[in-house]
Write a structure and sequence with these properties.
CATH class of the largest domain: Alpha Beta
Shape: globular
CATH architecture of the largest domain: 3-Layer(aba) Sandwich
Bound molecules: ligand P1T
Structural class: alpha/beta
Number of domains: 2
Largest sheet: 7 strands, mixed
CATH topology of the largest domain: Aspartate Aminotransferase, domain 2
Number of helices: 14
Strand content: 5-15%
Order of helices and strands: HHEHEHEHEHEHEEHHHEHEHEEHEH
Length: 380
């Protein structure tokens, strides 16, 4: 089966008792047992829930994995992966990641004895060097949030395998429609399903996809033992979103490419970063490991913080808000908003400057997006 067919059918057989075509919301915390320990396979909703299972099976199929394990947020999914480690373990990690990922690793797990080495994984040689000291996990975000740097998934997964480390890819910025890390050699894919998977900015969620049964079992154990599960309604909302993932991503891509080209030619914009522009330094890598790009664009304004503020206050079709990946276009200021939890010095070294603006291009009519940006750029 191809992508859109899987998105609509995987894990979503008509319900057995009534034939309901849409997977029902099993809004129940517990399940009746016939005799102690004699049950239908469902005991308690933290442990098993049919709505959540449908979502897990569907996204696993989209990523080419065998197991999906869903969580209440992207950060809860990351937390579960970190809980498979022990004190003394080391993680080699992309230096440019979502601010909340940095905060969780540095401020929650470091004090439990996990060591994090932050490296620019867009340079494969840096990864090779960092793995020399050993690691349990190589954690990459590609494209990164917010600088849209890419890591060569094939190359670094092979290095990690040799070093005995698992490769985890945060695939949130691509979605499974444009990039499938497991097929490129990674061991684990993680998504904030709050973003493209859900697609409508109405639910927070996270999911992990793996191929190996043993690793899946360890993660299932953490899902149940730690308990960061999504409720059935939230699982249902993400599953509904996933059905249209393919058509939405195509439109995000079309719109974003036009917006990126428009911004690149605009005198108030100093530099546009979008992996599908020929000007992106890793455009060739983008074409070799992705089949297209989402609606995420980053740009430097030819201005200062005040100019950036005026621009962000002036947009009308774009909404000034954190998050991304919904049908509506969003825009934000990483240094003040999504990456405020990254220390200023590190932000500076990554390029997260006061004039940096991040766009999540939605699926509206692109002419309205272009005129909105043009009008707001006049205020810069
Ligand atoms: O917000 P949550 O569902 O917990 O997911 C965290 C997360 C993980 N990975 C990436 C790449 C992300 O972008 C995020 C969340 N990011 C935002 C809220 C944001 O505006 O960038």
């Amino acid at each position: 089966m191809k992508f859109n067919t899987k998105a609509i059918h995987s894990g979503q057989e008509p319900e057995k008792r009534t034939g309901a075509v849409v997977v029902p919301v099993f809004q129940t915390s517990t399940y009746a047992q016939e005799s102690p320990g004699k049950h239908t396979g469902y005991e308690y909703s933290r442990t098993q829930n049919p709505t959540r299972e449908a979502l897990e099976a569907c996204v696993a199929a989209l990523e080419g994995g065998r197991h999906g394990i869903a969580f209440a947020s992207g950060l809860a999914a990351e937390d579960a992966l970190m809980h498979t480690l022990s004190a003394g373990d080391r993680v080699v990690c992309s230096d440019d990641v979502y601010g909340g990922t940095y905060r969780q690793f540095e401020r929650v797990f470091r004090k439990h004895g996990i060591d994090f080495a932050w490296v620019d994984t867009s340079v494969t040689a840096n990864v090779e060097k960092a793995l020399e000291k050993g690691a349990k996990i190589l954690w990459i975000e590609t494209p990164t949030n917010p600088m849209l740097k890419l890591t060569d998934i094939r190359a670094v997964s092979a290095l990690a395998r040799k070093a005995g480390a698992l490769t985890v890819v945060d695939n949130t910025f691509s979605s499974p429609f444009f990039q499938n890390p497991l097929e490129l050699g990674a061991d684990v894919v993680m998504h904030s399903s709050t973003k493209y998977l859900g697609g409508h900015s109405d639910v927070v969620g996270g999911i992990i996809i793996v191929r190996e049964d043993e690793l899946a079992q360890r993660l299932r154990f953490v899902q149940n033992a730690v308990g960061g599960v999504p409720g059935p309604w939230d699982a249902w909302l993400v599953l509904r979103g996933v059905k249209t993932l393919g058509v939405r991503m195509q439109r995000h891509f079309e719109n974003a490419l036009q917006v990126a080209r428009f911004l690149e030619s605009h005198p108030k914009v100093e530099r546009v970063i979008y992996p599908w522009l020929e000007s992106h330094p890793q455009h060739a890598l983008a074409r070799s490991q992705m089949s297209g790009m989402s609606g995420m664009i980053t740009m430097y304004l030819a201005s200062d913080l005040d100019g950036a503020r005026r621009f962000l206050e002036k947009v009308r079709v774009f909404t000034l808000a954190e998050s991304l990946g919904g049908v509506e276009s969003l825009i934000e200021h990483p240094a003040i908003m999504t990456h405020a939890s990254v220390p200023p010095q590190i932000r500076g070294s990554l390029g997260i400057a006061d004039t940096l603006v991040r766009l999540s291009v939605g699926i509206e009519d692109v002419s309205d997006l272009l005129s909105d940006l043009d009008a707001a750029l006049a205020a810069v």
